[in-house]
């Protein structure tokens, strides 16, 4: 049996097959780059969120907390804490101690928390759809290349003798390479997409818990300074 030669296959293949293989190769390289990048990004985000949940400090001490050595300033939990604290400081400066505007302040804090969690989740989710696209499109591109290659081989059948059919067989085998490459692209992309979605869900859950804690801390401060406080706590859920 003749040894398979990838370069010989490319030299004999049609332009359509070459384009198909180039697209699949590009999808493979990009998807692996995304997988590695997201793995590192999600690991850092998850560790930072877990550390922030264990942090016993107060929202007003967040600036000192995020400046600790080893902290990633762009981690989702850090950005969430800074955004909520910034909104709290802005509202505190506008607070009128003669008017009971605590409900409005808390509603703004809750909305800011929800918006920032959504923004950080969207940021982490970015580029994941490309993995889903590779998982769905790569097998189809591989199948297209195989069908096209076999059709091209069939065109050479006319006038061939039994002995010369052996010359066409390698071309048909080479056409199957596109299907194999399509699966090589799709399988890792599918697995990585599902695993990363699970990691993202865990990070989002930690951000929700962290945001709820910040809201409770801020509400305690607002209620303490509330004029004519009646001692009744409002709902702290975000």
Automatic annotation (TrEMBL):
Any single GO CC term annotated in Swiss-Prot or TrEMBL for this entry: plasma membrane
Q: Where are the transmembrane segments?
A: 15-37, 130-151, 171-197
Keyword check for Transport: yes
Q: Which InterPro entries match?
A: ExbB/TolQ_transport, MotA_ExbB_proton_chnl
Query: Which terms are listed as keywords in the entry?
Result: Cell membrane, Membrane, Protein transport, Transmembrane, Transmembrane helix, Transport
Compartments reported by the entry = Cell membrane; Membrane
Per the UniProt entry, what is one GO biological process?
protein import
MotA/TolQ/ExbB proton channel domain segment(s): 104-207
Alphabetized Pfam families for the sequence: MotA_ExbB (PF01618)
Keyword Cell membrane: yes or no? Answer: yes
Q: Chief subcellular site?
A: membrane
According to its record, how does it sit in the membrane? Answer: Multi-pass membrane protein
By sequence similarity, the record places it as follows: Belongs to the exbB/tolQ family.
Can you name this protein?
MotA/TolQ/ExbB proton channel domain-containing protein
- Native species of this protein? Uncultured Desulfatiglans sp
């Amino acid at each position: 049996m003749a040894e398979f030669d990838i370069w010989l296959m490319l030299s004999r293949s049609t332009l359509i097959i070459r384009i198909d293989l180039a697209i699949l190769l590009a999808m493979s390289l990009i998807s692996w780059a995304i997988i590695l990048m997201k793995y590192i990004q999600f690991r850092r985000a998850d560790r930072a969120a877990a550390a922030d949940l264990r942090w016993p400090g107060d929202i007003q001490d967040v600036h000192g907390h995020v400046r600790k050595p080893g902290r990633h300033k762009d981690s989702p939990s850090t950005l969430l804490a800074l955004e909520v604290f910034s909104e709290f400081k802005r509202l505190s400066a506008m607070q009128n101690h003669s008017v009971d505007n605590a409900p409005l302040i808390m509603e703004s804090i809750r909305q800011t928390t929800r918006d920032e969690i959504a923004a950080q989740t969207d940021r982490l989710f970015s580029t994941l759809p490309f993995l889903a696209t590779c998982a769905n499109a790569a097998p189809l591109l591989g199948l297209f290349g195989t069908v096209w290659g076999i059709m091209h081989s069939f065109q050479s059948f006319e006038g061939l003798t039994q002995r010369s059919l052996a010359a066409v067989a390698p071309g048909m085998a080479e056409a199957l390479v596109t299907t194999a490459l399509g699966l090589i692209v799709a399988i890792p992309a599918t697995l990585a997409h599902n695993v990363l979605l699970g990691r993202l869900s865990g990070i989002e859950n930690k951000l929700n818990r962290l945001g709820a804690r910040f809201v409770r801390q801020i509400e305690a401060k607002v209620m303490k300074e509330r004029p004519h406080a009646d001692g009744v706590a409002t709902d702290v859920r975000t």
